[in-house]
Amino acid sequence: MVKREIQQEISQRVEFIRRILSKAKAQGIVFGNSGGKDCALVGILCKMACENTLGVIMPCDSKRNYNQDKEDAEALARQFNIETRVVELTQAKKALVDALELTTQTTLPALTNIAPRLRMTTLYAIAASENRIVAGTGNRSEVYMGYFTKWGDGAYDFNPIADLTVTEIYEFLRFLNVPKSIIEKAPSGGLFDGQTDESEMGISYESIDKHLMGLEVEEHERQIIDRYHSRSIHKREKAPVFGE
Fold first, then answer.
1. How far apart are CA 229 and CA 145, in angstroms?
2. Fewest CB atoms within 10 A around its CB: which of 42, 134, 164, 243?
């Protein structure tokens, strides 16, 4: 097995970000700092590429957002000297849900996807106000499974980690000496209390990544992966338009 040159890959990703910034003629970067593994790596790479990098903590509803996730996000920002702001979205979500209830009976999936879309609205409002570009934080494993919110965390101006699996993300985080609390906690979007990615999907990221690497997985795991991938095609493809 060829040894991975993580430092070299970091340098290449930093240069990629700098090219994007230059092309966009932007003065800075903004990303959602959720306290999770993906945003940690994205935040570090963006800070390396651009001093004017802003991480926004956006708690919404979930108790974990206001406690563990917020604390981890702040710890990352302190260690890597990333500017941080907090935008509380709980009341904004409540106001929107109250308005929606007057016109429709909202389902649980619909309600769950509101927070990621409010967060992306927040990031783009800041970006437009301060000539920044929005960094995406989705990894290859999540994208393959469609485990992201369309027009929510699936929206961005650029993404420096979209080719990395969750397993690879952990390699980078350990190399960069990211706080252990971020590395060791169960991956979660923090969309509601008790939620974790793997329990919701019914499969581990380890198995998903093995499949992506062309290795064998259990038959029931392959079926879960195939089901998630096939039903989320619309999230990865450009929306159809007449005449194309």
1. 5
2. 243
Give the domain ranges of the chain: 27-236
Q: Which of 99, 97, 90 is nearest to 122 (CA)?
A: 90
User: In the chain, what percentage of residues exceed pLDDT 70?
Assistant: 95
- Identify the helix (H) or strand (E) that includes residue 122: helix 114-130
Q: Give the torsion sign (CA, 72, 76, 81, 84).
A: negative
Three-state SS annotation for 161-191: CCCCCHHHHHHHHHHCCCCHHHHHCCCCCCC
Tokens 């590429």 sit on residue? 49
Q: Give the count of beta carbons closer than 10 Å to the beta carbon of residue 171.
A: 14
As beta bridge partners, residue 119 has none
Instruction: Give the 3-state secondary structure of residue 203.
Output: coil
Per the CATH hierarchy, to which homologous superfamily does domain 27-236 belong? HUPs (3.40.50.620)
Buried b (16+ CB within 10 A) or exposed e, 216-234: ebeeebeebbeebbeebee
Please state, in angstroms and rounded to a whole number, the distance separating the CA atoms of residues 46 and 142: 21
pLDDT confidence band for 200 (50 / 70 / 90): confident
Strands (DSSP E) contained in the chain are 28-32, 53-57, 83-86, 132-134
